[in-house]
Amino acid sequence: MLCASCRLLAARACDHAARPAQSPGPRAPLQWRELHFPGYPELPSCDSLAGRLVRQSVPPGRRATRRRGKMPPATGGGLAESKLRPRRGRCGPQAARAACRDVAAEAVARSPKRPARGSRRFEAAGWWALLALVTLLSFATRFHRLDEPPHICWDETHFGKMGSYYINHTFFFDVHPPLGKMLIGLAGYLSGYDGTFLFQKPGDKYEHHSYIGMRGFCAFLGSWLVPFAYLTVLDLSKSLSAALLTAALLTFDTGCLTLSQYILLDPILMFFIMAAMLSMVKYNSCADRPFSAPWWFWLSLTGVSLAGALGVKFVGLFIILQVGLNTIADLWYLFGDLSLSLVTVGKHLTARVLCLIVLPLALYTATFAVHFMVLSKSGPGDGFFSSAFQARLSGNNLHNASIPEHLAYGSVITVKNLRMAIGYLHSHRHLYPEGIGARQQQVTTYLHKDYNNLWIIKKHNTNSDPLDPSFPVEFVRHGDIIRLEHKECPVKKIWRWEQKETSRNLHSHYHEAPLTRKHYQVTGYGINGTGDSNDFWRIEVVNRKFGNRIKVLRSRIRFIHLVTGCVLGSSGKVLPKWGWEQLEVTCTPYLKETLNSIWNVEDHINPKLPNISLDVLQPSFPEMLLESHMVMIRGNSGLKPKDNEFTSKPWHWPINYQGLRFSGVNDTDFRVYLLGNPVVWWLNLLSITLYLLSGSIIAVAMQRGARLPAEVAELSQVLLRGGGQVLLGWTLHYFPFFLMGRVLYFHHYFPAMLFSSMLTGILWDTLLRLCAWGLASWPLARGIHVAGILSLLLGTAYSFYLFHPLAYGMVGPLAQDPQSPMAGLRWLDSWDF
Amino acid sequence: MGGSPLRFLKAARLLRVHRNPGTQSSSTRGRADRRVSHLLLHRARRPHPLRTRVALAQCASALLPVGPRRRGESNVEQGSEWCGVPSGLTPNRRPSRTVLRRCREPGAALPGLGETRGICLSPLFYKMWGFLKRPVVVTADINLSLVALTGMGLLSRLWRLTYPRAVVFDEVYYGQYISFYMKRIFFLDDSGPPFGHMVLALGGYLGGFDGNFLWNRIGAEYSSNVPVWSLRLLPALAGALSVPMAYQIVLELHFSHCAAMGAALLMLIENALITQSRLMLLESVLIFFNLLAVLSYLKFFNCQKHSPFSLSWWFWLTLTGVACSCAVGIKYMGVFTYVLVLGVAAVHAWHLIGDQTLSNVCVFCHLLARAVALLVIPVVLYLLFFYVHLILLFRSGPHDQIMSSAFQASLEGGLARITQGQPLEVAFGSQVTLRNVFGKPVPCWLHSHQDTYPMIYENGRGSSHQQQVTCYPFKDVNNWWIVKDPRRHQLVVSSPPRPVRHGDMVQLVHGLTTRSLNTHDVAAPLSPHSQEVSCYIDYNISMPAQNLWRLEIVNRGSDTDVWKTILSEVRFVHVNTSAVLKLSGAHLPDWGYRQLEIVGEKLSRGYHGSTVWNVEEHRYGASQEQREREWELHSPAQVDVSRNLSFMARFSELQWRMLALRSDDSEHKYSSSPLEWVTLDTNIAYWLHPRTSAQIHLLGNIVIWVSGSLALAIYSLLSLWYLLRRRRNVHDLPQDAWLRWVLAGVLCAGGWAVNYLPFFLMEKTLFLYHYLPALTFQILLLPVVLQHISDHLCRSQLQRTVFSALVVAWYSSACHVSNTLRPLTYGDKSLSPHELKALRWKDSWDILIRKH
To answer: Which of A44, B244, B721, B726 shows the smallest number of beta carbons within 10 Å?
Structure first.
């Protein structure tokens, strides 16, 4: 790889030397451009097809094609100008104009000496060889020692487990959308993993279970990051050396390497993010030939990748935002082009809506459809979802169940909070501890199904058994005053202390609730259902008239305490140890209608009533989709850091302040430590600063109307446009984390890191070129660029040699020990490997 | 420069011709032209038909500070007349501008300008001569409508200001802080920087308030020593002055006098703004500074066009910065407006950079001036607020505990009384109390007592059954520890004392029980992943003492640093297991008396406050015997060294704590979500008369709220439409009208957006009054949109007339609504339950109806 780049650069240097310095006229920039992009033939972009066609008609038209298709246009116009210049006349009048220009351009292009046909082939081969080399190196590093360590590392315990759930068709809940885990499951299934491994905790040995398939799949996707970045940078900067530098930074980054080697969502996510970025860049560069086949191909590929990115994690929204911004700018530009009719602009708009909105949405929903279809059995995720949702899971007690439709006195019911992930109204035979309200029986909400969730609905004034067949069935109606009696657990002997079996009433009074001080406490009170007037609740159906019956599952009901006027609700806060970490139930004096205080009846047992089948209740697909998103969002925002806990802060990330322990703690363990290659990361950090500096200098100079020489203008275009695009990506993938309240981890930075590495590639290449240009009078000036790029490449490679044990695993004493092979490499005290 | 009542400022501006010539050399020509033309414009505009011209010669001679400057003015006036434009004839702005342009060319060739420069440098007597030649005349234009608006604003805000003479809503909260200021007691409030509280306290100071009032309950009657009028005066004044300022802003946006009047009148009758300004609350002051920032920026921007670097240019630029920092100083919300003004200034500066008629030096000077005024001045002022705050509050108070020991020691009383005169350097044999730096969930000290860990925990795990070590949030004799040298047996300080340094090995011996701090590979009671920390009791069961700790000073300067009382933050790293002494934050169950759990954290990653400790109380131990030592521990420490923290250290700590303090998400009866604000679906009951049903509510004028939102929607749709059409090269609006439209939109609609949208991201408890700053910007946008519709969308005169009639009808309905809601705004009239019910226009409004 290095040799190739040397050769090309050297070739360029010679060529340049032959050129008269600063020759005026159109010829100079042309030639200069060509020098810039040696060995960049038609292949990687949509030009391939068109390029060939052109070549046939105008045989040695390589320069011409480049002139029309590839060049970053000179000062000012940028992408804009290239779009203005339709390449192959597709639409009437433009074609003619374009043709004229083509002829002119070719006339210009033909004048310099033509490269021999053979050398062009040679360059194309070299180009392919470089790409192959980059890809190969990436794959080699990612697959090297993939099977080690043969035990669960870090979050493999989650994602591996979820992969198994897919294989076993068991329903589960996770805060991320399903695509990533589905792919992991699929990879496991195809590679012969049977889903029997439990993935209990990090460090468990895999033994005979086949895990290589899943790891290999992740590593496979992770390996594509490098060639994708390479191609993206090549397209943005038209410079091989920039692309090579980027590829080297990513290949030799221990962090990317480690993250790609395990069963995690991140390699999958990053794969889609980079694929979206690459196809967006490619489709931007076909902008001069809209509605051609490659244009459609890259546009729809962008849409597909976006769907993939969003389907793996919600972080995918950031790349969607980036593509969206790019598209809006693009459309805005097209709209302002008065040579395009409104119909054409409308076509453009429709094409983008189709490919970038409709297509990704369809794919994204399709992943959910598959998700719901595959996970058909009841599992650990049931309780997070609403009653109707659960009815479709086989094995769940609501599945194929038939229960009475209307609530009647004497029914045994479970009451579920309508807010996602709050659970069932629950009580158990433990009292509130001393000092927390009245010392009566606890009432909580509980996410899992349990006998203690059962309540009997009774009339407030009589204690007779309503199930007595002599009484007629009396339905509960909206506005009735009722009593909820806790049904005793049939398994009575499990409690250690002796206590008379009694059933308590749901009760509230003027005592402050345990956690939410402004609410009232809710307790279980009374003996065998005999309590006091604080046990009376008015049952109300939301948005209904008085006198209506109450339907199981469908009615949204509220319980209003008769004496204090407060509303039964759950605050969603987790009780301390004494409350078994269930959620707090309170009676809120604020009569605002929030989901926290609305309930529905889920199970309903009443032998006197006829059962109806619940199948009619099955939610439609859009409802399921909506519900699972609500649950996911709530789950995400529920991941809050606790006080007194070490948490990673977003400002830690770019400076590589702290890594993540993937495996192993002690000196005897096989340790893997997720940490970016500090040389790469700090270079990235430096590059961002340098970029902002040089970018603003150039921008101000241009705004001041300074006349830049053609070469500098061109390089600064690359810097401002290409670099700006990538910087936007970095910004979008990094800064939103500062606003997030949830727990953050180091690995959240990696998508942003990809972008900052691309920025580094573009920046250093451009800066070195500018440097070389500035020192043009000096005989060795050309060498600066080559030497600079080479030293950066070698430096990165050497730092990888130093730090590779972080990723590939190390055994032996910890780094603070001078005996350790890693001694001296612990450059920051906060790294603990 | 609309109709500022005191026009003498303008007179002052004329001087710039003399003061500046040094700064530019190459482009003097062009600049000078602009100046002359400015003068012309200025002169031409003076006789505005609506303005009364009052000669204020005597008054002005008293006000204008420097004599020679006035002389300069007279010279310039001579020069300007040279240009040959008949001064004082053109009645309004636009024509005057055309005059201006025409005048430019001849002006460029004016020899008179060279002369004025010459005059500037000429000897003093020459100027005197000029002074003697003509009389000193200063004219002032008074815009009567502005005066009238101010008067009405004052009337509406100050009328019966002391009613109700009781604590109303959040006064209960701000009142406490006023009392603290009066008594000079330190407090910590996370709701905003101290400038707002200081403004309120200034009212108390002016009224001679002694701070003696117990602010404990809304509705409590004020005692006679509370100067209610002066306490409420400053917010009311700020609210009243917002009215004329709205007028000025719309005028500065180059909209018509009518539109400006409209904006001001809407501000005048907006019930929510009236309510909020009449009480000891900060929103009206915040709105005042927000508007001031926008207004002064606009004034500055309009100066920029014709007279950069003039005195008024500098004045308005500086005032922009000052107003911004005041807004930020009152509430953090002020940052939003500051960001908006900064953004607009940045865009304008960017255009300035693109202006190639200016020299590089000139552009640089412009940028530098803006950077100083809009970035440096606000930062300095912000620091100044804290400086004054900390100077004022020097006594210790109820919030001391939240602050670090060093901070507490810098306050008078409290900890300072204890720590004053302690030895600075901790030595082997020192007796110390160790406070956890993190202070969450509560600030506490390392503690131990006789009791041991229970043999078996509730969940069946076992413990070492050694003496408990906890963190205790109260001062206690059991918090004392002795720093012991592991190699020696003495528990006293040798003479001379041997200070403990970074990296030294120490043992920590509990003062009363003389057991030493120990940790070992036993799971901690509540955090099973960490090690248990105990005071070692030897049960002879092959569990040896592991009581060596290595001292790490976190904030040290070098590796040989000495452990200092209060100042040093230290970590104790266990020598055998390299665990770090940490406060886990969990409360122990009953057996641990609900004190906080202390653990040895094995995987410590980087710095975290919960692993860091500092010495708070400290003395050199002198007693050899245990009994003597116990007596010594019980007696207060006395030696002598005193320390003071630098301002920056105190500032940064205070600022950090204010930002980090998370008050428990307290749900409130009247809290609301941002979505409810736009449509006014919520209100806040501020006060209810103890006997009658007179009550004060924060309730907006619903006509204004709804039409404000409508105007915003119309503005956005129209802008989008124009933008798209312009993109296709269809220019509906003339260029200057378009620029006016855009600037008005950016400031007004943008002001609304920046003051409203961020609330969707906030997790704190929100109230309706948070929307008021956004609302004021919406009110400014309203007349802008109306004028635009009338000027550009109404095709015929007839349409225009009809539209005007509609606007008048709409405004009278707003007035009617305002008047109807007046009893709830002022709370001066007791309404019958029936009337109250009739006022409940929305079901979601919570109007209090007494049940009799």
So the answer is: B721
What is the arithmetic mean of pLDDT over B296-306?
A: 92
Residue B460 has pLDDT above 50, yes or no: yes
pLDDT at A113 over 50: no
Q: With contact defined as beta carbons under 8 Å apart, do A216 and A181 qualify?
A: no
Query: Position A425: which residue type?
Result: L
Nearest to B353 among A342, A657, A700 (CB): A700
Structure tokens at B338: 């500051």
The larger pLDDT score, comparing residue A182 to residue A82, is at A182
**Over 70: is that where the pLDDT of A29 sits?**
no
Res. A116 pLDDT band, cuts 50 70 90? low
ipTM of the complex: 0.75
Measured in residues, chain A has a length of 833
Containing H/E element for B638? none
pLDDT value at residue A643: 59
SS (H, E, C) A708-758: CCHHHHHHHHHHHHHHHHHHHHHHHHHCHHHHCCCCCCHHHHHHHHHHHHH
Answer yes or no: are the C-beta atoms of A292 and A90 closer than 8 Å.
yes
The phi, psi pair for B634, rounded to 5°, reads -75, -25
**CB contact at 8 A, A460 and A560:** no
Residue count of chain B, please give it: 852
Q: Are A417 and A425 in contact (CB under 8 A)?
A: yes
CA distance B694 to A797: 79
Question: Whose CA is closest to A186, among A268, A123, A126?
Answer: A268
pLDDT at A84: 37
Q: How many beta carbons lie within 10 A of that of residue A792, not counting itself?
A: 22
Task: Please give the structure tokens belonging to residue B762.
Answer: 């906030």
Of B350, B360, B605, nearest to A830 by CB-CB distance is B605
Q: How large a percentage of chain B has pLDDT more than 90? A: 37
B356 chain-A contacts, CB cut-off 8 A: 704-705
For chain B, the structural domain boundaries read 430-620
> How many other CB atoms are there within 10 angstroms of residue A213's CB atom?
19
How far apart CA B241 and CA B243 sit, in angstroms, is 5
Residue B34 has pLDDT above 80, yes or no: no
**C-alpha distances out from residue B366 to B306, B313, B344, B345, B505, Å:** 14, 11, 15, 11, 60
Among residues A187, A189, A153, A183, the alpha carbon closest in space to that of A168 is found at: A189
Decide: B747 and B340 in contact? Cβ < 8 Å. Answer: yes
Q: Please answer yes or no on whether B440 and A646 come within 8 Å at the CB atom.
A: no
In degrees rounded to 5, what are phi and psi of residue B627? -65, -45
**Are B667 and A516 within 8 A, CB to CB?**
yes
Dihedral, B186, B187, B190, B194 alpha carbons, nearest 10? -50
* Tokens linked to A314: 């919600």
Residue A181: per-residue pLDDT: 92
Q: Which of A342, A643, A658 lies at the smallest CB-CB distance from B606? A: A658
Q: Show the tokens assigned to A780.
A: 């060795």
A332/B604 CB distance under 8 A? no
Q: Which residues pair with A507 in a beta bridge?
A: A523
Measure the CA dihedral A386/A388/A394/A398, to 10°: 100
Handedness of CA B539, B543, B544, B545 (dihedral sign): negative
3-state SS, residue A96: helix
B205 backbone dihedrals φ, ψ, rounded to 5°:
-65, -45
3-class SS at B619? strand
pTM of the model: 0.76
Biggest CA-to-CA distance, chain A: 112
CB contact under 8 A, B356 and A704: yes
Written as six digits, the tokens of B505 are 């090995």
Q: How far is CA A573 from the centre of its chain?
A: 27
The crossing angle, in degrees rounded to 10, of helices A293-312 and A342-352 is 40
DSSP state of B516: B
